[in-house]
Design goal:
mainly alpha; disordered N terminus
């Protein structure tokens, strides 16, 4: 009985250390990156203002007050697959790349820093490599949820301050005109709320890849590769490039011949879990001291 009791207390103590580690990671991540978070908020607001100016020019005779869904589609819409043409101008989804690129930078920076600045100490605190890796995966989920919440919150605040509606469907006219897409028939019925989680799923998957690849290539090169993947996704419409999931313009709910977002999200979340398992196995077998010397 005494042995079982001591084991039980030991398990409780390990769980407490794990939870404390995640809590400390969270505080450090937000505290260290508050300037970048401020940039994320300002960027979201600036893109909203840019959208209002475009609408004011396009609907000069019939003023339209955009709602939260309109702003979200403009910022996270991306673009339809680009087909080179002598008539059409070259397209580049700068807004979509900027907002997602900044979130990827935020979600990569602290896990890598925490590993090689405080790694040895944190490994002891969390009770081993596996627990440490799991704590980083939990942090990755919380961080990406938080960053998306920050973006969506700033956009909703702009909508409220400009007397726009929060819970409303986007206006079909501007999506067809600005997004240059062939609209799906059911878009007039509204967009399901869960569609707005697609950017989170995409970013979580890319951030998971970042965290694993950065163990070998370092943070700068890994981040550059992820940006390259985002750009490739913008110009290649394929379910094999996960960036397509984060573009509302390519969802089957918005565009004809679009991607089935619901099933795609489920697959991507499953792949995230697989990446965490594979990453945990790799991390538990790595020579961290040698990696620190190389870094």
């Amino acid at each position: 009985r005494d042995v079982l009791g001591s084991r039980g207390l030991g398990d409780v103590y390990k769980r407490q250390r794990f939870i404390k580690s995640v809590r400390n990671d969270w505080k450090l991540a937000v505290h260290r990156q508050w300037k970048a978070l401020l940039i994320l908020v300002c960027m979201s607001v600036i893109f909203c203002v840019d959208f209002r100016l475009l609408l004011a020019e396009a609907y000069e005779n019939h003023p339209y007050i955009p709602n939260t869904a309109d702003y979200l589609f403009y910022i996270f819409g991306g673009m339809e697959e680009y087909v080179p043409s002598k008539v059409e101008a070259f397209l580049f989804p700068s807004i979509w790349i900027c907002i997602n690129g900044l979130i990827l930078f935020l979600s990569l920076r602290y896990p890598v820093e925490g590993l090689y600045e405080n790694g040895q100490q944190m490994l002891i605190r969390t009770g081993g490599r596996l627990r440490y890796w799991v704590s980083k995966c939990v942090l990755l989920v919380l961080e990406n949820l938080f960053y998306i919440f920050i973006c969506y919150g700033a956009i909703s605040l702009v909508s409220i301050l400009t007397k726009g509606k929060i819970f409303a469907k986007p206006k079909i006219g501007w999506i067809s005109e600005f997004g240059k897409i062939d609209l799906a028939e059911n878009i007039s019925q509204g967009i399901p709320v869960w569609i707005y989680l697609a950017p989170f799923c995409m970013l979580l998957f890319l951030a998971s890849i970042q965290m694993i690849v950065s163990l070998f290539l370092g943070s700068s090169l890994t981040f550059t590769l992820m940006l390259g993947l985002l750009v490739a996704s913008a110009y290649i419409k394929s379910p094999y490039l996960v960036g397509n999931l984060g573009m509302f313009y390519r969802s089957a709910w918005a565009a004809e011949n679009g991607i089935e977002t619901g099933s795609y999200m489920a697959v991507v979340l499953g792949l995230c879990a697989a990446l965490w398992i594979v990453g945990g196995i790799i991390f538990c077998r790595m020579d961290l001291l040698k990696r620190e010397e190389l870094g």
